[in-house]
Structure formats: structure tokens, C-alpha cells
Amino acid sequence: MSMERNKAVVQRLFEECFNENDLSILADLVTPTVVYHNAQPGMAPGTDGYRQLLTMWRGAFPDAAVTIDGMVAEGDKVVTRFTGRGTHRGEFMGIAPTGRRVEVKAISIMRLEGGRIAGEWELVDMLGTMQQLGALGGR
After folding, report:
1. Which of these, 3, 47, 59, 124, could form a disulfide with 73 (CB 3.0-4.6 Å)?
2. Are the C-beta atoms of 33 and 57 separated by less than 8 Å?
3. How many CB atoms lie within 10 A of CB 108?
4. Does 92 reside within a domain?
């Protein structure tokens, strides 16, 4: 699979699955045994876990949208720097809805296999997110 094709798969995950909240295409984009290396305790493995993750974010920030700030591919990996923005309208990590608008910066490394995402490592600015929600005395 070409690096450009791999980037297109990752872009679809962000733009169609997340931004358009279309989980019906998730199975086309990730392998059944996809490994999310930053999974929270209790998160299901594979596609179901990915669905849980996306549902958790959309439940807490129903108007959430991701902007891809940069993307680089090499071999079977795609690295994406992105910004998520949304309004805190549902419970998030034990924090009751605040109505606050947040901007979350993150970097994702995805490994693709046969044209689908087989693994992901992600670094999300959770400290900044919690500060914006007022959970740590921030903004």
C-alpha cells in the first residue's frame, strides 16, 4: 500500500468517522484486531474499543471537530498532528458538563496493514484539556 493511500485512510478516519460522526465506515478503516496502545482500562479490544473511544469523545463534546495540522507518512506508518475543538456538553472522565469550549492538541502515530489501521499510539494534551475544563484550576 502506498504512503499516499495510507494517509488517505487516516484522513478518512478523522474527517468522516470523527468529524461527520459516521461510525458505519469504521470497519472499512481499521482491522478487526486494531490495537489502540493508549487504551483506558476497561476499553474493549479491536474495532469495538475504537468505537468506544470515538463515542466517548463525541458524547462529551457532541460538536467536536478535528483539524489536521500536518501529516507525514513513511513505510507503514502515518503521523498526524491535529487539533480537536468542541463544547463540553457530556460527562468526560468523571467531569460533569461545563459548557466550556476546549481546544485539544494531539499527535497520532498509526500503523497500517493491508490498507487499514492496525495500531495507534496517541499523545493528547490531557493536562491542557483538564485545565480548560476547570478541573485543575486552569482557564
Report:
1. 3
2. no
3. 21
4. no
Q: Find out whether 132 and 103 touch, Cβ atoms under 8 Å.
A: yes
6 vs 40, which has greater pLDDT?
6
Q: Mean pLDDT, to the nearest integer, of 65-79?
A: 97
> DSSP secondary-structure letter at 68?
E
Beta strand 101-113 with 30-36: parallel, antiparallel or unpaired?
A: unpaired
Q: Answer yes or no: is pLDDT of 137 > 80.
A: no
Q: Is residue 30 part of a domain?
A: yes
The number of beta carbons lying within 10 Å of the beta carbon of residue 40 is: 11
Q: Establish if 45 belongs to a structural domain.
A: yes
Domain containing 13: what range? Answer: 3-83+106-122
Residue 49: which CATH number?
3.10.450.50
In this structure, is residue 89 part of a structural domain? no
Task: Return the percent helix, strand and coil in the chain, to nearest 5.
Answer: 35, 35, 30
